[in-house]
Amino acid sequence: MFTNEIPSWVVGHAELIFVIIGISSGLFTITFLETENNAPTTHAIIKLLLLCQFITGIVCLTSALPSVWKNNLVYGVGLIAILSYIYAGFESFFNKFKPARYFIFAWTMLATGAIIGMLSLMGVLPSNNFTTYCFQVGVFLEAGLFSIALMEKSRSQLESEVEQATNDLRNNMELIEEQNARLDIARKDAIKASNVKSQFLANMSHEIRTPLNAILGFSKELNNASLPTDQQEQVRIVNTAADNLLTIVNDVLDFSKIEAGKLKINNQPFSPNKLLEEMVTIMAKSSHSKRIEFVFDLRPIPEKLIGDVFRIKQVLNNLLSNALKFTSSGTITLAVSGRSLEHGIHELNITVEDTGIGISRQDRKKLFNAFSQVDDAINRSYQGTGLGLVISKELVRLMNGDLNLKSAVGQGSTFSVSLRMNQLSQKYALSTNQEWQNKRVVIYDPIPSTRRTSSAMLTSLGAITTSVESLDFLTSLTGQYDFFMATVPVSKIAMRDTYLSRFVNFPAKKRILWYSGPEPFSQYPSLSQHFHSQVRMPMTLTKLDSLVHQQNIPARKAMLEKVEVLPAARILAVDDMDMNLKLLHTWLDNSPVKLTTTISGQDAVNQCQTQEFDLILMDVQMPGMDGLQATREIRKSPINMGTPIVAVTAHAFKEEQERLLASGMDDYLPKPIEVELLLDLIKSWCHKVEPSNIVFPSIDWQLALKRANQNQDTARELLTGFAQLLPDAIDTITVLWKTRDYEGLKAEIHKLHGACCYTGLPRLQQLANQLEGALKLGHFNDADNYITDLLEEAEKVLSESRAC
User: Fold this and answer.
1) Chain CA centroid to CA 777, Å
2) Which listed site, 35, 169, 330, 381, has its alpha carbon 20 to 30 Å from 185?
3) Per-residue pLDDT tens over the stretch 570-582
4) What are the phi and psi torsion angles at 742 (to 5°)?
């Protein structure tokens, strides 16, 4: 069956190999030359010859023809096919398909070898090694040339692609250059529009803040007036509406600064506990008015940090206001803690948690987008600009912090703020205090969250606390306690009478009534006989300090005191709105300040030509001669050339403030004017001229003789008797001061002061008088300085009296 290990069937049908080679070559030609595009004329001929070769192969398989005819048919069709392939190569080459030249040469070599082989078989050429192997050599050369052709085609395609990519890149570069030119034009237009917008906002700020200055100023002054209850409520509504309007204006301006990249952080030392207590005081009362408990959870934090206290307050105010707005029942919690990091950095962690409506996952995505709220239904129920959280998040980012939110619908929201600031003080605000060390304190509070935080605060101060939730357990307590902290929460207002009736019988040295909601002493005046004092919840360090340092401060408003101690300065106020000038008169007419007002820049210049002023408050935006022009003219006058001129304007941008200061003005006072800022500004620019201190001698013998009616024996006897009593007085004063017994100390100083009046001790008498006055006013920091000087002077008196 096999001949020389080759199947006999294969030997009998060897011509099929040439048929298969011919068909494969045709398919290769169509693919390589891409004849449909590069040789369209030959493309149809090659397809026809492929069909002929296929039919020839079938004929060979059937053995219908003699072997000689089959061979001649195969060779003939194959030769014609090869010639068509060569022709297709020429057509492609003439159509600028360069790899076709290798294709033509390869098929020419193969065709030549095939013709020589056929002629040898037909006897035309002699049969020898050359004629016998000529076809095989042609196939070998064809394969090599085809490889070169394929590489040439690949290279040509690559060059074509590179050229196309280069053209595309060139076109794209031209397009980019064109787009850059358009973008540059658009950028310039945007900068111009931004400047126009900023100027518009500055002008709008001025126009809105100027009338707001009068509205806020006069409406807050009405708080001090004796008005009927209904009118007091009307004034409160006006104040609230004006504050809300000012908040909206500030939010829009802050957002504009954020967009323009002009919002800056001003770091300075501040007390975090003081800031927190300010926020607690404001928000707790509002929370209690809605019958919501306010929880203040304070952990040890440094007494001094370095940060932007105004911006931190803005963030807290926003978060707490939102919590109050979206909570109708339950609690609002402000939790504060911290931890020290490397390189003197302290991380302050603030959490604001509420039990309000909560926020869904979908709504959380747009919560920090400008001018957006969670949905239309909430927009209708809770009004707002939708800017607060956007501004807060950006402020926290500028302060190197993070703002995160966790919330669930119907369960409330938790905002977490983490701020990293430089730590200025190593002393912590909530630490063991000698005043509370080992004090036995009972805390009654039916609200678990406030009871837990109050107990934690007192425990940190060193007190031994007992927390009580039920009245029955309270009744079962025995023993003597230093403090009884009794709480009547607003959420349990229906139980208030029951609570109070049980509280008054609890034995303790001091009973403190903590409350939320209406003041118990106002409802039941007789309660003041049973309780040491009443204090609004939540518990804070300042409130606890006031319980152990009871200050008998005269019932005069602190603001009135500040006004009365102003220097007798001559101040000129210039403003084109008469109501703003009337507001200044309202504030300063009862002070030592001599206030002159005018509504015209030109009139201000005229007055400065004839009168000398210590300070000029200059409105910037006025009709006719504005504040800048008036300032330049005043600087030319010989009388007020060096008088400080303060720009009073509602322009809110820092660039505007810097422009005003660069134009020759000395300071800046924003509208709406806050009376505290005004008073501080007057004090900073106008100082009292104090007479030089008179140095009194420790012992003035002439004064002693005068007091003794010129009797030397009596004078010496009085001085000697005083000197004998003085050491005991010094010891008593020292002990009272160390134990902070201010009432006993005040009585002892009063005795010492009276004794000094009968002897010639002017310096000791002066110090005793100053110390007694400071104690009466509750100025304990000043008293600290005086008592040190007094004790030193007393020792000096003793030393000099022995020498007399």
Assistant:
1) 40
2) 169
3) 999 998 888 788 8
4) -70, -35
**Pair 781, 742: CB distance under 8 Å:** no
Cis peptide before 554 (omega within 30 of 0): no
For the beta carbon of residue 417, count every other beta carbon within 10 angstroms: 23
**Between β-strands 331-340 and 667-670, what pairing exists: parallel, antiparallel or unpaired?**
unpaired
692 has a pLDDT exceeding 50: no
Q: What gap in Å lies between CA 436 and CA 420, rounded to an integer? A: 31
CA–CA separation, 551 vs 746, rounded Å? 12
Q: What is the mean pLDDT of residues 764-779?
A: 79
What does the alpha-carbon distance between residue 711 and residue 512 come to, in Å, rounded to a whole number? 57
3-state secondary structure of 535: strand
Q: How far apart are CA 622 and CA 627, in angstroms?
A: 7
List the single range of 106-110, 286-290, 650-654 with lowest mean pLDDT.
650-654
Mean pLDDT of 580-593: 84
Tokens of 475: 């009744």
Residues 6+ apart with CB under 8 A from 385: 248, 251, 252, 371
- Tokens 């950006």 correspond to 394
Q: Quick one: tokens of 179?
A: 């787009």
Sign of the C-alpha dihedral, residues 141, 144, 147, 151?
negative
487 contacts 520 by C-beta, under 8 angstroms: no
* Helix, strand counts (H, E) of the chain: 29, 19
414 pLDDT band (50/70/90 cuts)?
very high
Q: What whole-number distance in Å separates Cα of residue 641 and Cα of residue 270?
A: 37
Q: Mark residue 26 as left, alpha or beta (left: phi above 0; alpha: psi -120 to 50; beta: remaining).
A: alpha
For residue 293, give the amino acid letter: E
Q: Could you report how far apart the first and last alpha carbons of the chain are, in Å? A: 155
Question: Which of 732, 735, 778, 737 lies closest to 751, judged by CA?
Answer: 732
- Element housing 403 (H / E): strand 402-408
Q: Is the pLDDT of residue 737 over 70?
A: yes
CA angle in degrees (0–180, nearest 5) for 216-218-224:
110
Lookup: tokens for 348: 């302050």
Q: Is 123 left (phi over 0), alpha (psi -120 to 50) or beta?
A: left
pTM for the model:
0.51
- Cα torsion 771, 773, 777, 783 to 10°: value is -10
- In the three-class reduction of DSSP (H, G, I as helix; E, B as strand; rest coil), residue 553 is classed as coil
Q: Which of 60-64, 132-136, 519-523, 703-707 reaches the highest mean pLDDT?
A: 519-523
Mean pLDDT of the chain: 80
Torsion of CA 98, 100, 105, 106, to 10 degrees: 130
Q: Please state, in angstroms and as integers, the Cα–Cα distance from residue 346 to each residue in 341, 405, 422, 614, 707, following that order.
A: 6, 22, 6, 44, 62
Residues 6+ apart with CB under 8 A from 34: 92, 97
- Bridge partners (DSSP) listed for residue 302: 428
Q: Is the pLDDT at 166 greater than 50, yes or no?
A: yes
CA-based nearest residue to 450, from 413, 485, 478: 485
- Classify residue 320 as exposed, middle or buried by CB count within 10 Å of its CB (0-12, 13-18, 19+): buried
